[in-house]
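User: I'm writing a tutorial on reading structure tokens. Could you give me a worked example: one chain, its sequence, then its tokens, then a sentence or two explaining what the tokens reveal?
Assistant: Sure. Here is the example chain.
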Amino acid sequence: MRADVRELAGLCLPDGARRPMFDEDSWDFTVIGLPVQMGKASRRFEFTAIRASRWRLVAKELILALLAPQHPAVAALPRAYRTPLHLASCSARLREIVRLFAWLDQRNISSLTAIETDTCEAYLQFRRYVTADNDTVVGEQSGTTGRGAAQSIIDLVDYRDLFTADRVSADLRPWGGATASTVADMRSGHEGNTTPAVPGEILQPMLAAAVHLVQVTGPHAVALHTQMRQSNTTIRAVEKAGLPNSSPTAIDDILETLADYTRTGTPLPMLENHDVTRRLNNGWSPEDPLLPVATSVIARHAGYTQLWRHWLPTLREHLTAALEVVGVEPSFARGAVPVPAADGSGDIPWALPLHRSQAVALIGIVRTAAIILLAATSGMRSSELMELRVGCRRPIEEPVAGLQRFRITSKIVKGQPLGGTEDEWVVIEPAYRAIELAEHLHDDPREGALLFGGRFSFEARYGSFRNWVNSPSAARLGLAPIPEGPVSMRMLRQTLSLEMAYRPGGVLATKIHMKHCLGHDRRLRLQTRWGTSRIARRGEQARSRPQSRLDPHRVP
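And here are its predicted structure tokens:
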């Protein structure tokens, strides 16, 4: 069938983009409105992993039916979805159906009509449990994995009459018609939220470190970032128009640069440890005083791409003399200004001299601190944080004298049509300033550019952040170490929602702030599926609870 999948699904492609066609085995959905959170791998639907051509057709028909439920052939099915599934959900369904067909191949099942109730149970067990080589169960997968496995079989039953090449038997009714979530024994929303709050012993030092890095270290990190961008610009300019190594004035130019170092008392640039190791492997003596000197940096300051080997004998005496006068140290964050230590022990330089890689890492840590502070105090989902753009801060309002209101804009992605829905969040000033800092640390701060550069893994960022806070560099600043334990965006959001619900009238405020009360016409519409009564009971039981752990005044 030569059908335009994009047209049937009602999706919009950028100008010049290739249209995915039904008879092709690869559908590329790089369409307009995709959320930043959706990875590139999820945008490309690959059917080539399904060996049997008839099953490949079944998979295509199923995915198209999920994307275009309004199609007449799909609308007539009694158990079909009535609203289109998101591309990310369809991508997950395809991955699971590919696994199912591969598993059937391994069991020498060549037709879907051969699938029986026992087959469904066997596949569910295969996906649900982790087994050793001797088929002994050694672990269990998450409920989400079990639900996906059950759903792939239920889809084959629900859309049976749509398939043209192969289909399950008409009397197959796995698990008595139960839903995939029930089959996987997943908890319902009425039983409470399964996401725990961040424990206090982790939350307090984590937020304290994030606040200190954003408010105290942040302005200096911006200056460091500016210095690095200027350095990168200089390097590119020298590489583009660098003087030839045969220039008759090369030695004189470098000697003049060394004289500038000596006259201004500027230490010579220092090599990083891995570059020192490379020199040793290339035959440099460990006793050579020039071993740690970054001679290529000195050459670039003179306008040359590097200090060539045949120049070194002539320059060695002058390099050694300059080294004895001014010494050598890393190039960035020299002469760091004192800042208050986080533990109140006094003032201390905000950073020690840094190599380039260390400066890049520190700027990344400050960016992560901004993300943590923003996520913990705003309750935004990861998808909403990734949609933030440079210029998302609205002008500060002062509806009452002395009372300021801080607003930011982003998109709600979850539960919204493709492209998301523009919305605003009212945040506290630290969150507002964290976004301002992230804008200043942006590599290309054009209006409308993605604030955090696109899709990111919070778990990976938080792991690096915790490792740095637990390092000697953070201990020097007076930051307390962060204990081991999981922290995720969902946990931060759950922590804030519970803290808000504990306050008088906090249940409704929580539902509004967490975007649980938005109707399609932008009017407030209460949604009861999140268990209003349960949160209200928690709030009543916690009226005497001590001051919130998220209160910024409690963070040192």
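What the tokens reveal: Confidence is low (pLDDT under 50) at residues 519-556. DSSP finds 20 helices and eleven strands in the chain.
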